[in-house]
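Form P-L/3: holo structure prediction, ligand acetyl coenzyme *A.
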Amino acid sequence: MDLIKEIIRNAQEHKQRIVLPEGDEPRTLQAADRIIADGIADVVLIGNVAEIKKMTAEFGLKNIDKATLVDPKNNPDRDKYAALLYELRKAKGMTMEQATALAENFMYLGILMVKNGEGDGLVSGARSTTGDMLRPALQIIKTIPGVSCVSGAFIMFLQDGCKYGTDGKMVFADCAVTPVPTAEQLAEIAICTADTAKNIAKIDPAVAILSFSTKGSAKHEVVDKVITATNIARERRPDLLLDGELQADAAIVPSVGSSKAPGSNVAGKANTLVFPSLEVGNIAYKLVQRLGGAEAVGPVLQGLAKPCNDLSRGCSIDDIYKLVAITANQAIAQKSNK
Ligand code: ACO
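OUTPUT (holo model):
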């Protein structure tokens, strides 16, 4: 995949500092060693330092001495992070005592370090669930100004010879975060996904907001939601090639697009698909992956003020390495858009 090579090269050229809260997890530690060796990112490893050192010796890792190691249970800066957390969450009822306890939690500490500017992004998930990372990220890092809804996109690398997408790629969202988006949230998801398609998947986005209806062929309140979302997204980002409501075939098949949605600037050539709910998006990406033989890379979380990404617990060392490179690319893109 040339795209991954390009992502790696960009990460090497504009080195970012990435926090790995599961630093004492064996695959994460081995990935960190390769990330440092290849100059992909500067790495902060959070974890039991004695355990990290023991595994470093066991695995014969040569580069971990160049990482910053932070032990959450023995951290001279604990009170600094507790005070930051308390400030951020006291209005939500958090006490100083709770903040102090959470500042010793590896995930909260990692998120707080990123919030505090000691990391440009974060990758976790080799042994934590999506929610374990997302909740503190949503509470502490919050969203990019102008965005209220975080979502998760997959870059779908289609099988060789597939006639859909652009350069063998499509981007799907939301497949990971917001179960039932409002029209406003769906519009934000579409806009963020267009930016992910451009900045990370390196395709010019043609965005379709999908439905079971094309241009009024069916009437239902969930179709109305997609129509409203399309109007909001268009108003906010007139620069984007974006249309809805479109059925999946009308979105990607030229002959169906021209017969069901004549005049649409997206129908028949969409490469960025926005699903009306998380159920649809999550099911769709897994079916395209399993039945269609596509490789799904993600979820790339979009909309957070600083990039934080989540691995599957079955991830490989290579998956962690690539997701760190992708996270670094998101940080680079965010900085260049400021
Ligand atoms: N965007 C931005 N902020 C959000 C979002 C969102 N989508 N969702 C919640 N928040 C904020 C809330 O406003 C709240 O902020 P506040 O405390 O400052 O007021 C904070 O996050 C916590 O909100 P809750 O509603 O208490 O959080 P919840 O317990 O609902 O968790 C979560 C949010 C984790 C995102 C939940 O919606 C979830 O579990 N989503 C599905 C994740 C999942 O299982 N995905 C499928 C698996 S991943 C895969 O297969 C690739």
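COMMENT: The longest helix spans residues 317-337.
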